[in-house]
């Protein structure tokens, strides 16, 4: 079994707004230090507040996203960007249009290709040609998925088509409009693809994720909880959680700290 150095960082914030702001700070810092950074953003409800903060900063001119390249993390097979239920469309309208990333700077997953396997390999090449991801911001799925790397996904998995679990399809149904059939397959960047990012941020909010965050960080890394593989990234991984999501953690982790105004006696200094 792969082992990580376990020197990743975890910072626990009082609440969702504070955790979202800290995540927005990481994104902002990444772009300030590299204006043409290549980034992957998550979809889902977790990052919504973080996106609002980034949009406000972009509107104020505090941060310029115009040279950033975004790679889509996941998309349903056969679903085009014109489809109201497309994750790419969600990302474009909900985030990229608001922060000023033009559609030309968005790499979409080739989910309508005739040969999906070959097209996924080309997507990997496009990421590599860009020098890899500078930053991958991820959410934690209720079943431990990252992107759509469902349970069963290995640490070395690459961009590919995956069959969605019933749990993920039911989670997705909340976002789908009308009585549509939820696709049973998606294309996702692989765990191995994500692990090569220069920096990874896992944002986890709310008590519904507490047990899964504990498994992600404290159980042995395994295919059962694909997010657990992120620990392999060591210091390149920053986990940002609110207190509710961190409430089931049983041990103080080496890189763990609380937000500055909320630091307890046992906490160590922020190591990044
Ligand atoms: P959520 O989804 O933010 O809506 O909980 C997270 C995910 O599935 O990655």
Can you walk me through this structure?
With 272 residues, the chain is of the alpha/beta class. It contains seven helices and eleven strands. The protein has helices at residues 16-33, 48-60, 87-99, 116-129, 166-173, 191-195, 210-218; strands at residues 9-13, 38-40, 69-71, 74-76, 106-107, 135-139, 160-163, 185-188, 200-204, 237-242, 256-258. The strands form two sheets. The protein has an eight-stranded parallel sheet. A three-stranded antiparallel sheet has the order 4-8-7. Helix 1 packs across helix 2 (48-60) and helix 2 (48-60) packs parallel to helix 3 (87-99). The longest helix is centred in the first third of the chain and has 18 residues, at 16-33. The radius of gyration is 18 Å and the shape is globular. The relative contact order is 0.21. Mean pLDDT is 91; it is low at 261-272. Bound molecules: 2-phosphoglycolic acid. 2-phosphoglycolic acid binds next to loops.
Describe, in short, the structure shown.
The chain is an alpha/beta fold and 272 residues long.
List keywords for this structure.
single chain; 272 residues; alpha/beta; eight-stranded parallel sheet; three-stranded antiparallel sheet; 7 helices; disordered C terminus; binds 2-phosphoglycolic acid
């Amino acid at each position: 079994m792969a082992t990580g150095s376990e020197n990743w960082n975890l910072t626990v914030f009082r609440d969702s707004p504070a955790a979202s702001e800290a995540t927005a700070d990481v994104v902002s810092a990444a772009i300030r230090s590299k204006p043409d950074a290549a980034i992957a953003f998550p979809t889902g409800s977790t990052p919504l507040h973080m996106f609002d903060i980034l949009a406000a900063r972009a509107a104020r001119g505090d941060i310029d996203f115009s040279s950033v390249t975004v790679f889509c993390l996941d998309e349903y097979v056969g679903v085009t960007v014109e489809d109201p239920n497309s994750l790419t469309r969600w990302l474009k309208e909900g985030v990229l249009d608001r922060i000023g990333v033009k559609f030309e700077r968005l790499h979409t997953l080739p989910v309508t290709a005739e040969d999906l396997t070959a097209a996924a390999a080309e997507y990997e090449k496009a990421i590599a040609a860009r020098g890899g991801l500078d930053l991958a911001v991820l959410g934690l799925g209720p079943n431990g998925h990252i992107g759509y790397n469902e349970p069963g996904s290995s640490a070395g998995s690459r961009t590919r088509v995956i069959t969605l679990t019933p749990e993920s399809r039911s989670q997705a149904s909340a976002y789908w409009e009308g009585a549509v059939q939820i696709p049973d397959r998606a294309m996702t960047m692989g765990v191995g693809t994500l692990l090569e990012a220069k920096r990874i941020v896992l944002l986890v909010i709310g008590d519904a994720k507490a047990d899964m965050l504990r498994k992600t960080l404290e159980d042995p890394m395994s295919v059962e909880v694909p997010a657990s593989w992120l620990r392999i990234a060591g210091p390149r991984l920053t986990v940002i959680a609110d207190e509710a999501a961190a409430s089931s953690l049983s041990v103080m982790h080496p890189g763990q700290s609380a937000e500055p105004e909320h630091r307890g006696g046992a906490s160590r200094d922020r190591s990044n």
